[in-house]
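Exercise: predict the fold of this chain.
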Amino acid sequence: MTHRSLSTLLILLACAGPALADDAAASAAPAPRLKLEGSQRGVALAPKGNRVLWFERHEGRYRFFFSDTQGIAPQEVVRVDARSPGQLEHVLNGGLRQWAPDSSRFGFATVERGVLRAGIAQLDGTTELFDDTEPRAAVETHSLCFAPEGGGGWYVEGRSAGIAPKSTIHTFDADGERGEPVFEVQQALVTALEPSPDGARLAFFLGTKQGRRVAILDLTSGVHVTSGVVRVIDHLGRPRLFWTADSEAVVFTARSGPGVWPASVLRFDATGAELRALVSSETWAVFGVSAQGEVSLVDPHGRAAALLNPTTGERRAAPGNLAIGQESPRSALLYEPESGQLWLE
């Protein structure tokens, strides 16, 4: 199963009755559903579970849409430019699918004057691109994420051109204004920012000439730890790091051999003390982490889904053969490997 094979998506929207007395009637009635077909990509469930976001390609531009869980007609939010395949890959890696915790806005990436930029889009279509003090022809934004408690977050400014790449992680506030840098590195590019659930650390990939490493930054002390070189993959979208629910480690998928498969599911402790394999040289890939703290896996070859204990490495079949990608108090984004469909229920 490849990322491109997910171009046809089925979103199943279900909501409970407002009163306990209506439960029986609500369960007997057919669930409202919204069917999305065609070029929808990057489907993301809002943290509150009340909205879903995706984007489509149209005449060389990328259009962002959202719908709520009541099944309203999809509404277009913003359009961005990304005309070349290379630019598209940057946009996919540049902060898409990053909802703010209050589900009112999201981070996105665009190409402005040939330079990758990130910004914040409100649901009414207004946008704010992050500014920089260096020449726009040299600076690109590679990632963005919101703080778990809301308000602002962090984004990356990186220079990938020339002989001296560098990256700086900046804070931004609730108004989208840039704050002080919290991390800077020379001869490397930072991508795929992921905040820990407790908000104390940032995890990211650190790309150098030698290869890609996992890095974890302590936001209080400013100290960071890095893994050895890893060959990261994610066949269902951009390469990602997933925090465990207790904020003690990140998990991700990496190649075990010269090809994409077989792969290993690796765990890297937040203290940097250990990088170990939870699954070795198989076809499982990480899809998400459930609210109960289990790592959700998919096997595209066996068309199966499983749940993995990130501490013990114990694995069990996923109920209904559905992998959990994102979860909220009222909805969950699920993936069915057998049909290649994403479901929101």
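Check your answer against the key: The radius of gyration is 20 Å.
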